[in-house]
Design a protein that fits this description.
transferase, 9-stranded mixed beta sheet, transmembrane, about 45% helix, Rossmann fold, alpha/beta, Spore Coat Polysaccharide Biosynthesis Protein SpsA, Chain A
Length: about 1050
């Protein structure tokens, strides 16, 4: 005997591992066989689960509830109820060393239970997920199947070991859909019974005229098997005798007993005792029926059932189905009778092979197979226990290839381009927060950047609220070019340093919370540079749902793979989800001249550098389509224009589905002449008829009246796309210039190792330490030495101790200067003197309440070295607290965006975000004007003088700094005074050189001021537009006061600074 069959209890097993075994069916004999195997492996096992019948259980177990086969809704309800009272139900059991869950519904209990035990401080509790069947509901492409797979994937995150009975389950399901990346242990359903003793009176040889006895044993659930056996015996009465033993699944075959009663060659001998009755059962038959078509095309093809091993152990030839895993095993050993398909003719042909000679050959072949192939031994049980408890994951006899959870080093940058997406953006960010937290726990760097194109609703407020909840993980980035392509490129320039992956999310979509995890796993699994996904349109109102139905069907999408692909594959294009950052940059990023179809255009360039694009079926997104016919047609009109630009740019040819759409607009134009030549309308008539019939077919197949509207809506989409395509193609052809592919960007040249300094003027500012810390973390400097110069403008050296403490720990040189004048010009000039004395060639300025992005210095320096300029300026993005007025947050009046001339160059500089080539001639002897040190505008005057000296400006939008707006500046009064000062300084520099200049510009300034005030009165009920005009009016009023000789107001002083 391979092992004893008595139960091992705690008293007998000193130091034995304790396993909590959860099963979906306590009445299943196979579950108790697994329990027995675990005990024979040396573990103490406690059993809990759901009962299916009122029959007594083989031994004590904790019954968590009662379920019934096939009633999914009721089973889900029972599982939820059990989960709520699980800890109470398990009270009294010792803390397990491992948990094993048999089937998905108990995994829903085991996953949080294992996590709870692992978090109690007593050590990790490994969780094993045992799967012996893949239900057909898990395999479809419908919403229910996708939802179930999504639930399984989520629960499998906590799984440490996947236990399967067949490699085909892993190959055809878990690997295909990527359900679980845990190590896999194959534990076949080998017989636990000892090998049979040689029989004194073996079954006699087959004799002519005697019936051939076919045994079908175990769980009898295959309706098709019963029908085939019934038909075969009726076709040849008396030739075959089918003996069935076990438990019929009456929910699957409700007429089982009626069929058996009506056929004298069928008999049912009832249940049997396992394993005691096996020698008698298999000793009484000639061949065993090993076919199970219960889950044809899926589980039935992959399963290696108990009866395969029982028949093999007793040397009984098996009847198997071609193409199944059972057929593979028996064919390798030469011990099977193959049925080619599940038709009566195929079964008849296979049964005709059962002759005395053939059966003797098969029995002889069985005798040559080692008994270990069919019988489970103690060593197998010990391997199972070691695998489940985590003692030795490497002892498994068969270990399938697995995906490691630790992926390529480097961070993940998630970019969400947005414009007026207040209604949807919050949900998108919330869906990514679990991923950010998982990255934080694992030490992986991850950041979400919302590239906002100038939203006028509450989009920016949404981002700032989310950023406040997770500081450092979520950022708002101003996208001045407004296009999605430009916003993503800018985000990569600003935050992409050190990031390995780029994930693109749409603000008008919904994502599962494991979306990013699966994308990263797929990139590692497929070794692809880009992962794309399918998307499913979904809506709420009647029109939006009808549009969604059209877009989800071939009628609306032409069968495009990225709309609804049932399986993963390599493709030319798909909906962008994840890209390697290096590949994205090597291809040149998105073409910023494209407002639409920028993803397909980039895919062509990715392919040109040899990048592979994998369309995953493991995850996807729900897209919210337009909710109006006019907006839908505008969208598809732009889609058509984008596709035409892509084809023209790359010289590519349209696909067949696109050719049909391309022909539509000309056909509509030709139909105008149909009154004179009716044949010209034939294409239009065919197309309109096709749309209507397609909508009718959708309505019938989906059983929804939405389909009737989907047909005409699809026609509108077709026509708009075609019109947009031809509009753009005409523009392409009449431009007179062939489209030239932009040169692929070269790798960034290494920075010249010249000394760089950053100057920070400070005056009793608590946020100074945060500014210094952001500079400490600067990246991409390529060895360029960085010096930080802090100029303290307080009369007492209030910042000295903090700066010196920081300098003692900093990797950069830190210099503290004391300029006790309470005049910011004096502080800035002190920095200029120190930098010149140190021989520093390049100097940057940042304010003491600003936070620099991680590659701020390197972005400014690269732009300075690459461009013909002496001054590089960058933007400042204001961060508003929740107490800021809504109109202020929406208008973003505290942002600093450099004004650009016709050539895209800034017309002025500002010291809050700037880098200058200090050694250049325009800065020789140049200083900040102390007379403007209290009023402000000293930096504007400084850079204006540099411009007049010949300095050239350039903008670097990726060199972003952020500034939290203090309460003292969150008032309309402060903004009015600030703009008044800006207007005063601007006029002083440009309009006050002579009386003639004042006389020329004063009337225009007065007119502008009057115009703004009138608009402010008219728009008084609207806070945002009203205050916009008041602020612009203050700017013109400042210019007027300057030209009239009034003195500047003092905006910055000790009170304001001290309170900040």
């Amino acid at each position: 005997m391979p092992f004893e069959t008595t139960r091992t209890n705690a008293a007998q097993t000193s130091g034995a591992k304790t396993i909590l075994y959860l099963t979906y069916n306590l009445n299943d004999a196979a579950a108790w066989r697994r329990v027995r195997m675990l005990r024979e492996g040396g573990a103490e096992v406690f059993v809990a689960g759901f009962a299916r019948t009122d029959d007594p259980l083989p031994e004590d177990a904790i019954v968590l509830g009662r379920t019934k086969n096939g009633r999914l809704g009721a089973r889900i309800s029972t599982v939820i109820s059990a989960r709520l009272r699980l800890m109470r139900a398990l009270k009294g059991l010792p803390r397990p060393d491992a948990i094993m869950a048999r089937n998905l519904e108990v995994l829903a209990l085991a996953s949080p239970l294992a996590r709870k035990f692992s978090e109690d401080g007593a050590g990790h509790v490994p969780l094993s997920y045992e799967v012996l069947d893949i239900h057909r509901m898990m395999l479809g492409d419908g919403a229910k199947s996708r939802a179930l797979r999504s639930v399984e994937r989520r629960l499998c995150r906590n799984v440490d070991r996947l236990v399967l009975s067949s490699e085909a389950f892993h190959r055809e399901y878990f690997e295909k859909y990527g359900q679980c990346s845990a190590p896999t242990l194959i534990v076949e359903n080998k017989s636990l019974a000892p090998p049979p003793e040689p029989r004194e009176n073996p079954r006699p040889k087959l004799e002519p005229g005697s019936p051939i006895r076919i045994g079908w044993n175990g769980i009898l659930r295959c309706k098709r098997s019963l029908a085939l056996l019934d038909a075969a015996t009726r076709q040849s009465p008396g030739r075959y005798r089918v003996v069935m033993r076990g438990r019929p699944a009456l929910d699957e075959i409700p007429h089982f007993h009626d069929v058996v009663a009506a056929n004298p060659d069928l008999s049912f001998d009832g249940p049997y005792d396992y394993p005691a009755d096996l020698p008698r059962i298999y000793g009484d038959i000639d061949v065993a029926w090993l076919i199970d078509r219960y889950e044809a095309g899926g589980n039935s093809e992959w399963l290696l059932p108990n009866r395969l091993y029982e028949a093999g152990q007793h040397h009984v030839p098996g009847i198997v189905h071609a193409g199944s895993e059972v057929e593979r095993v028996t064919s390798e050993l030469g011990v099977g009778l193959v049925v080619k398909d599940d038709t009566g003719e195929a079964v008849h042909d296979a049964l005709e092979q059962i002759t005395e000679t053939r059966v003797a050959e098969l029995r002889a072949a069985y005798a040559k197979v080692p008994a270990d192939r069919w019988t489970c031994h103690r060593a197998d049980c010990e391997v199972l226990v070691a695998g489940v408890t985590g003692e030795a994951f490497d002892v498994a006899p068969k270990e399938l290839a697995k995906v490691e959870r630790v992926l390529e080093s480097g961070g993940v940058l998630v970019v969400i381009p947005a414009l007026n997406e207040e209604a949807h953006l919050g949900d998108v960010i919330d869906s990514i927060v679990p991923f950010l937290r998982r990255c934080g726990e694992s030490g992986r760097e991850a950041r979400v950047v919302v590239a906002d194109g100038g939203s006028e609703d509450g989009t920016q407020d949404v981002v700032l609220r989310k950023a406040g909840a997770m500081p450092g993980s979520i950022s708002l980035l101003d996208n001045p070019k407004k296009l999605q392509s430009a916003g993503i490129n800018l985000a990569c320039e600003t935050y992409g340093e050190g990031m390995s992956w780029l994930i693109r999310l749409d603000a008008h979509a919904r994502y599962p919370d494991d979306y990013c995890d699966i994308l990263l796993e797929e990139a590692q699994r497929q070794q692809a540079e880009s992962i794309v996904v399918s998307m499913e349109a979904t809506g709420t109102g009647f029109l939006q749902r009808a549009i969604a139905m059209a877009q989800n069907s071939p009628l609306g999408n032409g069968g495009a793979a990225h709309r609804n692909s049932p399986s993963g594959k390599f493709v030319d294009h798909g909906h962008h989800a994840l890209m390697q950052m290096a590949g994205f940059r090597r291809a040149g990023g998105y073409d910023e001249t494209f407002s639409h179809n920028e993803d397909a255009e980039l895919d062509l360039r990715l392919a040109s550098i040899g990048a592979q694009i994998w369309l995953t079926a493991r995850t996807g997104l729900q897209y919210l389509p337009r909710d109006g016919a006019a907006s839908l047609m505008r969208q598809y009109y732009n889609f058509g224009r984008g596709r035409a630009r892509t084809m023209y740019k790359h010289g590519s040819r349209p696909r067949l589905r696109q050719l049909i759409m391309i022909a539509l607009a000309p056909s509509v134009a030709l139909a105008l002449f149909a009154p004179w030549l009716p044949i010209l309308a034939i294409f239009l008539v065919v197309w309109m008829t096709g749309c209507l019939l397609g909508g009718l077919a959708l309505a019938l197949s989906r059983r929804s009246l939405l389909g009737l509207a989907a047909g005409p809506l699809a026609g509108m989409m077709h026509l708009a796309w075609s019109a947009g395509f031809w509009r753009q193609m005409v523009l392409n052809l009449t431009s007179g210039q062939p489209y030239k592919l932009p040169a692929r960007p070269k790798e960034a040249a290494p920075l010249t190792p010249e000394r760089v300094a950053v100057g920070i003027c400070t005056f009793r500012r608590d946020q100074l330490l945060e500014t210094l810390e952001s500079l400490e973390d600067q990246r991409g400097l390529d060895g360029v030495p960085l010096t930080l110069i802090v100029s303290d403008n307080d009369r007492s050296d209030s910042a000295r101790a903090m700066v010196e403490r920081f300098g003692a720990m900093s990797r950069h040189e830190v210099i503290y200067l004391h300029a006790p004048a309470e005049n910011i010009s004096v502080a800035r000039n002190a920095i200029l003197r120190q930098a010149r004395a140190e021989g520093i060639e390049v100097l940057a300025f940042i304010d003491d309440d600003e936070i620099a992005s991680r590659n701020w210095v390197s972005q400014l320096l690269r732009q300075l070295q690459a461009d013909d300029a002496e001054i590089v300026v960058g933007p400042v993005q204001a961060l508003y607290p929740s107490t800021a007025p809504a109109w202020m947050r929406q208008r973003r009046v505290h942002d600093t965006r450099p004004e650009l001339d016709a050539n895209g160059r800034p017309i002025a500089g500002h010291s809050c975000n700037v880098m200058i080539r200090l050694a250049a001639a325009p800065f020789d002897g140049l200083r900040f004007d102390p007379a403007l040190g209290a009023t402000g505008g000293e930096d504007t005057a400084f850079f204006e003088q540099a411009r007049r000296n010949g300095a050239r400006f350039v903008m670097q939008p990726a060199a972003m700094v952020t500034e939290t707006v203090p309460p003292t500046r969150m008032s309309l009064r402060w903004l009015l005074l600030r703009r008044y000062r800006m207007g005063h300084t601007h006029a002083q520099l440009h309009f006050c050189a002579s009386a003639m200049s004042r006389a020329e510009n004063l009337p225009l300034a007065l007119a502008k001021f009057g115009y703004c005030m009138c608009l402010a009165v008219v728009l008084a009920p609207l806070p945002g537009p009203r205050n916009d005009n008041l602020i612009r009016g203050a700017l013109h009023l400042g210019a007027i006061s300057s030209m009239l000789g009034f003195r500047q107001v003092i905006l910055y002083g000790s009170a304001e600074k001290s309170s900040a």
